[in-house]
């Protein structure tokens, strides 16, 4: 029995928390299913008889992101995890092999290519069942992980706060639990030598029990996090401040835009999933209203459901935001497909009904001709978080759409000795007209409803 097969529950927990490709050379494997593409193409052709224009749009969208693009995205994920791409392999099949996904013959070919490239881990651009992962490892004789495990590893690397670490560990435990079954066969065998004769299958039950106990503990701690967040929102609710959440595909430039609007100085990186822990900062809109801007984790194609569930406490900020800024990378050739993936996750979070502004970021990286010829859809704002272009337009657009604490245009007469009231107006309202008369200041202002109520005794009826 190999040492890898004799891990105890403690060892499994440890590996789930810290396993990663590190700086190891990695070998990427992708599969393109012709059968699925053929069925999809037939369905599109049938639909085209009735709605040709819609079918054409769908065809263009699907063609824009194929198996080769998916493999390239997997390479970015592996690099973000600290790996170094040693090689890649893309196989075309009619349907997946139930036992090994791609067939034993191709596995032996991949094993030779990975060995000659010096790869220490093979990453599949698909989710593997526990039995498939076990069968593949038996052939290639090296460590094998799938797309979900790679994303979990990246999340574990980038989580900084205690809350983020709890959420990642919960997702890892739920991913690991069904994979204990494969290890149970080895654990049930009696070892040879002094001190190796164990209780057999009881070991698997012990491992499961320990993981179930850990999962229960993590859920309790995350429930405490949700309760604390609810209390914080309740306290914020006593002051009329709306929340605006940044959402978008990973590496769309959300953190750079967040810094440009708030000067918060959060980490900016071209790595995928550089932001995991949410950050809230107050910003002032042109109307002088204050809102809270929230930077959130980026989404990605086929985001593991365990991560969506585990990060629900964090993503509640998205659910409860009054306005969403859907940030897209205007330079990405797969912009439309990425936006669709974000919408799918928002629908899963039941956050797809909120008002939103589509923000096309990174316009400074487009060629000059492309910038001039860009078709602007109604409600869309083009910005460059790096240069600041378009940010004023974005702030005004946010001002228009936010219904929380609506603006009122009123006239006030405030005695000059009421310095506190005058300073509140200067800080929280737009002064449209000002005149000094008989020891008082007569003003016409555009101010939030909450400020008008606080200064109601100075309001002059028309």
Q: Which keywords apply here?
A:
alpha/beta; 462 residues; elongated; disordered N terminus; Rossmann fold
Tell me what the structure shows:
Helices cover 47% and strands 20% of the residues. The protein is of the alpha/beta class and 462 residues long. The chain folds into 3 domains: 3-166, 3-Layer(aba) Sandwich (Rossmann fold), CATH 3.40.50; 240-401, 3-Layer(aba) Sandwich (Rossmann fold), CATH 3.40.50.300; 407-460, no CATH class. Strands 6-7-5-8-9-10 form a 6-stranded mixed β-sheet, with helices on both faces. A 4-stranded parallel β-sheet has the order 2-1-3-4, with helices on both faces. The longest helix has 36 residues, at 202-237.
Sheet/helix structural class: alpha/beta
The largest sheet has its strands arranged as: 6-7-5-8-9-10
Which stretches are low in confidence, meaning pLDDT under 50 for 5 or more residues running? 1-22, 35-44, 46-63, 182-201
Largest sheet: 6 strands, mixed
For the record, what CATH class of the largest domain applies?
A: Alpha Beta
* Individual helix count: 18
How many domains, in number, for the residues? 3
Indicate the CATH architecture of the largest domain: 3-Layer(aba) Sandwich
Q: What is the percentage of strand-forming residues?
A: 15-25%
The CATH homologous superfamily of the largest domain is named GTPase HflX, N-terminal domain
According to CATH, the fold-level topology of the largest domain is Rossmann fold
Mean pLDDT over all positions: 78
- Apparent shape: elongated
Tally the beta strands.
14
Integer-rounded radius of gyration: 28 Å
């Amino acid at each position: 029995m190999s040492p890898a097969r004799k891990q105890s529950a403690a060892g499994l927990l440890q590996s789930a928390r810290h396993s990663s490709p590190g700086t190891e050379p990695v070998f990427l494997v992708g599969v393109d299913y012709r059968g699925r593409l053929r069925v999809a193409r037939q369905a599109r052709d049938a639909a085209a008889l009735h709605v040709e224009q819609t079918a054409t749009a769908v065809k263009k969208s699907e063609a824009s992101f194929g198996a080769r693009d998916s493999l390239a995205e997997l390479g970015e994920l592996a690099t973000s995890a600290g790996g170094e791409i040693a090689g890649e392999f893309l196989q075309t099949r009619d349907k997946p092999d139930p036992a090994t996904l791609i067939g034993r013959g191709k596995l032996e070919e991949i094993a030779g290519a990975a060995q000659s490239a010096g790869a220490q881990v093979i990453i599949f651009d698909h989710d593997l069942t526990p039995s498939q992962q076990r069968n593949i490892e038996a052939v290639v004789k090296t460590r094998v992980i799938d797309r979900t495990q790679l994303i979990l590893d990246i999340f574990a690397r980038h989580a900084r706060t205690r809350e983020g670490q709890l959420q990642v560990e919960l997702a890892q435990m739920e991913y690991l639990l069904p994979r204990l079954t494969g290890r149970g066969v080895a654990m049930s065998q009696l070892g040879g030598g002094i001190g190796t004769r164990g209780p057999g299958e009881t070991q698997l039950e012990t491992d499961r029990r320990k993981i179930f106990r850990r999962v229960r503990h993590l859920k309790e701690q995350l429930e405490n996090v949700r309760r604390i967040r609810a209390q914080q929102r309740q306290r914020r609710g006593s002051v009329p401040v709306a929340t605006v959440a940044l959402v978008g595909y990973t590496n769309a430039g959300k953190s750079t835009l967040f810094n440009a609007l708030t000067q918060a100085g959060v980490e900016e990186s071209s790595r995928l999933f550089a932001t995991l822990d949410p950050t809230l900062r107050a910003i002032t809109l042109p109307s002088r209203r204050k809102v809270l801007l929230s930077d959130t984790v980026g989404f990605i194609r086929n985001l593991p459901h365990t991560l969506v569930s585990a990060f629900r406490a964090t993503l509640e900020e998205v659910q409860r935001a009054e306005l969403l800024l859907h940030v897209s990378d205007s330079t990405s050739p797969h912009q439309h497909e990425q936006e669709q993936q974000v919408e799918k996750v928002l629908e899963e979070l039941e956050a797809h009904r909120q008002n939103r502004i589509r923000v096309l970021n990174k316009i400074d990286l487009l060629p000059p001709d492309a910038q001039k010829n860009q078709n602007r859809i109604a409600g869309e704002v083009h910005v460059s978080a790096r240069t600041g272009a378009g940010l004023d337009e974005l702030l005004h657009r946010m001002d228009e759409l936010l219904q929380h604490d609506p603006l009122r245009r009123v006239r006030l007469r405030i005695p000059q000795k009421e310095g506190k009231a005058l300073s509140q107006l200067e800080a929280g309202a737009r002064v449209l007209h000002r005149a000094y008369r008989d020891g008082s200041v007569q003003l016409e202002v555009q101010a939030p409803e909450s400020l008008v109520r606080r200064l109601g005794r100075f309001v002059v009826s028309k």
